[in-house]
From TrEMBL:
InterPro entries: Glutaredoxin-like (IPR008554), Glutaredoxin-like_YDR286C (IPR052565), Thioredoxin-like_sf (IPR036249). This is Thioredoxin family protein. It comes from Thioalkalivibrio halophilus. Gene3D superfamilies: Glutaredoxin.
Amino acid sequence: MKQLTVYHREGCGLCEHMLAELFALQSRYTFTLDVVDIDEDPDLRERYNTKVPVLAVDGDILCCHFLDREALLDLLGPA
């Protein structure tokens, strides 16, 4: 099972949009989803401040700002 992590911040419209897309995909694909607020960790805030939302799959960054749906679906495999 793939582990997806979204690095986000509260009040970020792009973050909310990416999360909504991922929540919708959970009904068809099997993956776990962790949502991490970068503003709760100074190191994460420094690393991802202008890149949020950031989506990592199994620890590797897949995309920033917008969901790369095609790349994600390739990693997740058939529904």
